Amino acid sequence: MYKIKNKEKLFIYTGPDGSGRKTVAKMVATAFDMETVISYTTRSPRHYEKNGEDYHFINEDTFKKMEDNQEFLECVEIDGIHYGIREEDIVKAFESHNLVYLTLNPEGTEKLKQMYGERVMRFFIYADRDTVIERQKERQDNDQDIARHMAHYDETMNYKNSCEHAFENYDSPQISFQVSEVIEEFLERGFIVTDY
Known about the structure:
By secondary structure, the protein is an alpha/beta fold. It has helices at residues 21-31, 60-68, 87-96, 106-116, 129-138, 143-151, 153-157, 172-190, and strands at residues 9-14, 34-36, 40-41, 56-57, 72-78, 81-86, 99-103, 120-126, 165-168. Helix 1 (21-31) crosses helix 8 (172-190). It is globular and about 45 Å long.
């Protein structure tokens, strides 16, 4: 397992599908020198998703091989779909950046929190059920995908109180600003100046 060094920090965005967590995460990253790490998944890309930008889309066999080779720092299976974060990707991201962010489901988020403890800061980004459905329709997710996401809505929302910070995303730029303020404050607190 990769050991996170002194000033290195993982920021994880989680929450229901359609809550806008990826949008918020990307906006916040531009305010700081943040690198992202993209998950691998066995599901098919949605029409608006790009391979290598949203996910690394791979087939079951490739995923299984990577799993057998212990390439994943964490991996989960949800509704028969596999998701995983490759350890090497985290190592590479930290080579050039102290701050790295990921967008994960609660299962993956919890696994990394258990591994890295206080080195992980979790942001739970959510919206009410109707808003989430509306956003999924706007991005033209099919009914089957929406139903699958919504089947996990309550379970995902239960994770909110476990996270260090939670924001209802009614307006992405506004929420990104609030998240940035939290990170700014944390970073200023985190740097200790010692005079000899």
